[in-house]
Amino acid sequence: MKKKSKFLFAILFVLSIYSCKSQEKENPKTLGSTNFDIQNITFKEDVNTLFGKNKYYKTSIKDDNSSDIAYNYIVSKKENQGIKVSLGNIDISKYKYDFKISKDNKMIGISTSFVSKEDIKDKIIQNIDNQFKNYKVNINQLYENPTVYRWEAPEKIIQFTYSSFEGDNVYNISIVNKNFSCDKFPLEKVFVGEDICLKNYTKK
Fold first, then answer.
1. Residue 129 class from Cβ within 10 Å (0-12 exposed, 13-18 middle, 19+ buried)?
2. In this predicted model, what pLDDT tens digit does every residue of 78-94 receive, in sequence order?
């Protein structure tokens, strides 16, 4: 009887893993071919293939000594009408997104910021929770405005910051490659103003 129970549990476990994986649709190798869901970024994307013939702006990210530590690849729909980018089922194509690339061409992460009159905070949280609810981190929040939400999956950190000001809703979403940790790499220089390392958002 015990063997049957263990066997049944094993089958249910495998099916649940398969179900979770099946929810993650594979992103296109090149921006613009089909929808690119930033939640499904793998950090294994080939940078040259990803941007293809799309127009982008490349800017340097420097440390305190003015030395390059990484690069911003800034992409916008204004310059690339065919691009479609989403967060789950939320279309964020009309906003610009920054791909953070290391000096040796590795993907550090992606971030997008935008201001809207529409309050979609709960919708954003729900979309992230649909895939990463089990990885949600409880933060000892220092401020109510901005408010930070965080998910730490095995391979990535998702951080969503929300604030409101004079009727505007300000949203910032960043997804970070866990291979780049705060104790080994100056992430706060790469994700400017986002406090990825939670130095300012949390109570001591």
1. middle
2. 889 889 999 999 999 98
- Total residues belonging to the chain: 204
The alpha carbon dihedral of 83, 87, 88, 93 has a sign of negative
The tally of CA atoms less than 13 A away on the side-chain side of residue 128 is: 23
Beta strands in the chain (DSSP E): 36-37, 57-62, 68-75, 85-87, 90-91, 97-102, 107-116, 136-137, 147-152, 156-165, 168-177
pLDDT in tens, 106-137: 999 999 999 999 999 999 999 999 999 999 99
Amino acid occupying residue 67 = S
